[in-house]
Amino acid sequence: MKHGIAEILEARGGAKRDSLIPILQEIQESEGFLSQEAVSEVGSRLGIPTSKIYGVATFYNQFRFEPKGKYHIQVCRGTACHVLGSATVLDKLEKILRAKAGQTTRDGLFSIEVVACIGACGLAPVVNINGNFYAKVTEQSLTEIIENLKNKEV
Amino acid sequence: METANKTEMKEFLIDQLLTGTPDMADPFVSSKFAELRRDDIAKPVIYIGTGTCGLGAGAEATYLKTQRYIEDHQLDVDVIKVGCIGFCAAEPLVDVQLPGKNRISFKNVTGDKVNDVLESAFTLDSNNEHILGQFRSEKLDVWENVPFIDEHPFFAPQKRIVLKNCGLVNPINIEEYVARGGYNSFLETIKKYSSFEVCDMIEKSGLRGRGGGGFPTGKKWKFANGTEADQKYLICNADEGDPGAFMDRAVIEGDPHRLIEGMAIAAFGIGATKGYVYIRAEYPLAIERLKIALTQAREYGLLGKNIFDSGFDFDIIIKMGAGAFVCGEETALIHSIEGKRGMPRPRPPFPAVNGLFGKPTIINNVETLSNLPEIMARGEAWFASIGTEKSKGTKVFALSGNITLTGLVEIPMGTTVREIIFDIAGGIPNNKKFKSVQIGGPSGGCITEENLDIQVDYESLISVGAMMGSGGLVVMDENTCMVDVAKFFMDFIQRESCGKCIPCREGTRRMLEILESITSKPNKNNEKEALQRFKGIVQLEKLGKVIKETSLCGLGQTAPNPVLSTLKWFRDEYESHIYERKCDPNVCTELRTYKIDIDLCTGCMACVRKCPVNAIVGARKTHHFIVEDLCIGCGSCVDACKFDAISIS
After folding, report:
1. Which of residues 305-364 of B touch A (CB under 8 A)?
2. How many domains does chain B have?
């Protein structure tokens, strides 16, 4: 784990403040989230107080401070999705998985994230699971999708 | 072999770019260009639309099935992944071009339809139900009995400048872009004009910022052009945070070289040597394609030091946004690139004088920049001839919501909203009635039936309380609750408010609270809440005005718009929520009341067990009843009842 973070920082030797966000993004890409150790490591390398880094990281929606689930589910809550019922889809998802948006299920399989707009408004409501798009999702089709994923794991 | 061909092609194309206008009389040159433009093909070509929306509709399966079909039938065919033509409702789209014949387009080709569609394409059968139309060309043979795509009601009224190549070319192939006249206009510009002349031409063309504000682009450039500095920056704002808009994504996914060329022209105009593309991390495909396109442009020497011996240096860096709506605001975006929290600062000094790292910086939107190559190629007078008096050119709109044909349309300014919704996009599905259209996202407002005939341009939209914004059009039918829509936007804005200035941070929160009290079940023991609800409309309006007048940045100044605009046009709906505690379209769950039909109820206890607030009473085998005061309207009982005995009353 530590190795990956050190490597990312190594590759950006002499990095300044303006590289902070890309570095955090890279760490999240490889580790899945920003751990406390990662943040303090970045701080000591760049000479920025940890508090400042948390200030930046918590400002942006992209950064997570908890590990992601094996299946990371992004529910789009853009306007078009809202008009076509994404609120009920999200409700249903939270009910099935017994986890709230931003959380990970206890078995570590699923995590839910609400995103502002994926930009596939023509196919609303949209759900994205590990990079795969599911278009025109309904409560029923969502239940099936989750069941299929769960069955895969058994 | 492949690489040798590539190098040869590169040298040939660079040669052509150096001479300026390619000599079409030379048979060698014209045949090469025809080959690259696919006017003249040796073997069949299959194009598959693989934008994000295409992939969402299942284009990946279509691609795999196509590959298998080709293997099974041992065909010698080129399969090309193209961007999105903008017709989301018809995705996945597959086009087939046979040698000597017009390119023909098929709609809704999901994986299971591939065999059927390819079969009829290769057997020249023009009766397939999936046929969308054929593309027009001068030299190729026409498909009999197949309509032309440019006569399709969705495409006929469009005028494509920005989306010209989208869905038609391979987005990550610079050769095709150059063969269609690409980069020529940039090289001509740096050869022929001075930087000030470029600013002047753009100002005369009447191009205005497509990101929302509509500030004249040329005028903005002149500020930066006139400022002396050792380093200037150009930033392309691709942080399309506006929910409901996706044109920037489509342009970058479908034609990234157009954006790069546009940025190069803009950079020359303002004298910048370094450009940034600030793009949302939610658009991984767009980022990937832009990266490839940038590498290609560098290989061709179109980016870098001393471009084509002109003495002009320019290169582009991609910066990924990290998900903050406020970063669409210029100064917030600059702070974000500098690695800080994306908070706006007061202006002046304007970024054109003091921007990124304290240097003069110009920030333009993707669509604005993508207009530039065409303007420089065809002249400012040509561009100024399109559109209305004060709004020139075209605008791309993203159509979504309760509408038959979703997708991207590029239309000349001055088209009416009615034409867009009813003529182009086919109106409202399922015989529902039109209610309103939300334009401009969280900063915009809504347009109702009576205003549908206004022309789309910056001023007209503002006159009815909406705004152009980035061009998202979300259509809503009679089943939409406008109070709920306003609440949705307020919730979005108060979460995205950066928290720097108090009117926006506290004000939007208060507005949301008022809307929530209007749409939620009254708490009998809380008189304060009841009072707040009744004061709702009055306070909302007053609060909205204060936020508008006193906020620091564009986000706050426009934040109350969705509420003020719905209040203006749908005041009766607010009032029925407040006084009658009723939501007519039954969207606000807490205001719903449920009823158990005692003739159907068997007393199975299923709903009693499911109810999260114990609002259902009744013993086994006796009829159940809902205690209205306790009910929160969640609807769990409806799901639980196997006898359809529970319904919304």
Report:
1. 319-325, 336-342, 357
2. 5
Chain B contacts of A16, Cβ < 8 Å? 339
Backbone angles phi, psi at B101, to 5 degrees: -115, 155
Contact B443, B449 (CB under 8 A): no
pLDDT tens sequence across A71-95: 999 999 888 888 888 988 998 999 8
Residue of A nearest to B498 (CA): A59
Domains of chain A, by residue range, sit at 2-59, 71-153
Asked if B283 contacts B252 with a C-beta cutoff of 8 angstroms, the reply is yes
* Cα dihedral B133, B135, B136, B140 in deg (nearest 10): -110
Q: Is the same domain home to B468 and B489?
A: no
Looking up tokens 């918590």 gives A58
> Is B340 found in the same domain as B215?
yes
Chain-chain contact of B406 with A126 (C-beta, under 8 angstroms): no
B488 contact residues in A (CB cutoff 8 A): 79, 82
Query: Is residue B583, in this structure, part of any structural domain at all?
Result: no
Both tokens of residue A148? 């299929």
Q: What three-state secondary structure class fits B299?
A: helix
Q: Determine the Cα–Cα distance for residues B460 and B628; give it in Å rounded to an integer.
A: 47
- Token pair 């709702």 in the structure block, residue: B536
The answer as to whether B6 is a domain residue is no
- Rounded Cα distance between B472 and B450, Å, is 20
Answer for the pair B220, B348: CB distance below 8 angstroms, yes or no.
no
Query: Is B43 a member of any domain?
Result: yes
Q: Are residues B403 and B490 in the same domain?
A: no
State whether B129 and B274 are in the same domain. no
Note the ipTM here. 0.89
Note the CATH architecture for domain A71-153: 3-Layer(aba) Sandwich (3.40)
C-alpha B587, offset from chain centre: 26
Residue B135 Cα, gap to closest chain A Cα (Å): 23
Nearest to B103 by CA among B169, B192, B58: B169
Q: How does pLDDT run across A115-145, given as a tens digit for each residue?
A: 888 878 888 899 999 888 888 999 899 999 9
3-class secondary structure, B437 = strand
CATH code assigned at B536 = 1.20.1440.230
B370 and B348 in contact (C-beta within 8 Å)? no
- Does the residue B112 lie in any domain? yes
A3 Cα to chain B: minimum distance (Å) = 24
Domain of B319: which CATH number?
3.40.50.11540
Nearest residue in chain B measured CA to CA from A87? B488
pLDDT tens-digit map of B349-400: 999 999 999 999 999 999 999 999 999 999 999 999 999 999 999 999 999 9
Where does a domain end: B384, B410, B439? B384
Residue range(s) defining the domain that contains residue B213: 174-384
Mean pLDDT of B96-124: 93
Are both B434 and B569 inside the same structural domain? no
Nearest chain A CA: its distance from B591 CA (Å): 16
What is the number of residues in chain A? 154
pLDDT at B147 over 90: yes
The answer to whether B401 contacts A83, with C-beta atoms less than 8 Å apart, is yes
Mark whether B422 and B374 lie in a shared domain. no
Residue B611 · residue B637 · CB < 8 Å: yes
Q: Are B345 and B491 within one domain?
A: no
Is there a contact between B585 and B479 (Cβ–Cβ < 8 Å)? Answer: yes
Same domain, B279 and B326: yes
Q: Is B566 on the interface with A (CB under 8 A)?
A: no
